[in-house]
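Reopening this one. Same input as before:
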Amino acid sequence: MINDRVTGNRVIRTVLRAEAGTVAALHHRARSTYYPDGIPDDGTDWTAVWRTAVERPDGHVLCAVEQGRIVALASFRVPEGGPADTVKLFQFHVDPDHWRSGIGTALHTACVEQWRADGHGEAVLDVHVGNRRAQAFYARLGWIPDPRNPPAEGDHHLFLRFRVPGE
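Same output, byte for byte:
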């Protein structure tokens, strides 16, 4: 598991079970920015989903904390039935008030360090087609369209792949 990483007034650490509600609220706030008509309400209890993610022994949920407040989060693990050397970044969100502050890049760097430590050579993710800001962010970090998983007609997500650099 990643050790706490402290840079200035910023700490990147593992999310605690008791913080699931805080994480769910940040997740909702960030997702709201790329759904122009509002996030579809499918009845999901996101606090329970995040609590489950935090408790998974095969996963990681990291957060960035500034001035005692969680301002970014990332959740990743090897997907069910996926190759052991590939990790999936299931969620990556930065509080909109902290966009372009470097927090997302710092959190991504911590993720890459953990992926490398866990022996993962590649990472995959899917990003909402309307989330151009996130697509540009991932492209700057070296993510490319996944040639193994091109989008199909009507897909709401684009699939990206990242080569985890060696040490």
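So the earlier flakiness isn't reproducible anymore. For the record, The CA atoms of residues 85 and 120 lie 4 Å apart.
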